[in-house]
């Protein structure tokens, strides 16, 4: 961490304290915003920097990664990653327009320009890469199950035992997610909803025996509903999280990848993790960016 960043981190702590004490909007860090960054004419970076604003799609119901705060502004690790990218475009956090995306509408929102980028626990995969492109990954999650505390049904992530442990059970997950696709390899008894938080009531009423998605989303939901649920240990997939951009916008994708790598190096990525996920999960190693 260089001196300038160190000083700015100090300011970020002061800002965070102000927020905690006064309840002013937002949370997490206040990244250093680039002053008049230069970009080649005609690039998405130049367009966004000139406009002084960026529209980012993220989740609004996922604690730790993207959760709507008291004033409606989302908070979480994905949100912090968005702030970093905006900051390197010269755009301050309060100039970001946040749009709620659910799993199913992410590709469409990128394709039709509803958002400039999507940062929303969004797994990079070949099927999605047919219609959009991805910067990153900036984190790698894995799929597991959220179950009632004590795991009465004995659901497991252990390879070779998953299908058996799901026998006669109903699993809730979200339409348009890799979680749905993955779990269907083990069971047909799948209940689909629009958002992961919509699985909580069915779990409470016994309509669903488990919720399946990425372990980090489950950890956030377990934390939000303390004592009620637990996350089954282990994972049975790899979910590299990427930043969705318009297909073919290679300059913008390169800029995003450069920003991520710089943030790995100078401590901003780690700060983003600590200020959001914090002690809920172990600090991971940042994954290698895939410049495909
Ligand atoms: N990462 C998975 C996906 O992109 C599951 C989480 C989500 O639906 O956001 O589909």
Could you explain how this protein is built, in words?
With 292 residues, this protein is α/β, with parallel strands linked by helices. The chain is 34% helix and 20% strand. The chain has 11 helices and 13 strands. It has helices at 3-22, 44-51, 77-88, 106-111, 126-129, 162-165, 178-183, 200-205, 215-224, 250-266, 268-274; strands at residues 54-58, 61-62, 66-68, 74-75, 96-100, 117-118, 132-141, 143-148, 171-174, 190-193, 210-214, 229-231, 239-246. A 5-stranded mixed beta sheet has the order 10-9-11-8-12. The structure holds glutamic acid. The site of glutamic acid (GLU) has 13 residues, from helix 7 and strand 11.
- Dominant shape: elongated
- The low-confidence runs, each spanning 5 or more residues with pLDDT under 50, are 1-26
Which whole number gives the mean pLDDT? Answer: 92
Q: What is the CA-CA span between the terminal residues?
A: 29 Å
Strand order of the largest sheet: 10-9-11-8-12
Global structural class: alpha/beta
Number of helices: 11
- How large is the share of residues in beta strands? 15-25%
Helical residue percent? 25-40%
Helix and strand run: HHEEEEHEHEHEEHEHEHEHEEHH
Bound molecules: glutamic acid
Number of strands: 13
Please give the radius of gyration in angstroms.
19 Å
The biggest beta sheet is recorded as:
5 strands, mixed
């Amino acid at each position: 961490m260089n001196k300038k960043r160190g000083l700015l981190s100090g300011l970020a702590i002061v800002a965070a304290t102000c927020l905690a004490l006064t309840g002013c909007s937002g949370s997490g860090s206040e990244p250093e915003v680039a002053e008049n960054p230069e970009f080649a004419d005609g690039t998405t970076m130049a367009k966004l920097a000139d406009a002084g604003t960026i529209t980012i799609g993220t989740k609004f119901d996922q604690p730790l990664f993207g959760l709507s705060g008291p004033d409606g502004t989302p908070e979480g690790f994905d949100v912090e990653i968005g702030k970093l990218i905006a900051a390197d475009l010269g755009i301050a956090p309060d100039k970001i327009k946040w749009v709620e995306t659910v799993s199913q509408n992410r590709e469409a929102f990128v394709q039709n320009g509803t958002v400039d980028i999507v940062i929303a626990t969004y797994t990079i995969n070949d099927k999605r890469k047919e219609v959009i492109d991805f910067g990153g990954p900036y984190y790698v999650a894995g799929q597991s199950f959220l179950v009632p505390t004590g795991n009465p049904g004995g659901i497991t992530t252990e390879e070779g035992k998953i299908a058996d442990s799901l026998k006669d059970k109903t699993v809730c997950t979200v339409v348009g997610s890799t979680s749905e696709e993955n779990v269907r390899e083990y069971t047909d008894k799948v209940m689909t909803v629009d958002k992961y938080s919509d699985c909580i009531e069915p779990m409470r009423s016994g309509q669903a025996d488990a919720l399946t998605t990425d372990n980090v989303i489950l950890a956030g939901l377990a934390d939000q509903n303390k004592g009620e649920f637990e996350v089954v240990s282990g994972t049975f997939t790899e979910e590299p999280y990427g930043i969705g951009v318009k297909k073919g916008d290679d300059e913008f994708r390169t800029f995003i990848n450069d920003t991520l790598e710089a943030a790995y190096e100078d401590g901003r990525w780690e700060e983003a993790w600590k200020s959001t996920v914090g002690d809920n999960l172990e600090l991971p190693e940042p994954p290698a960016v895939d410049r495909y």
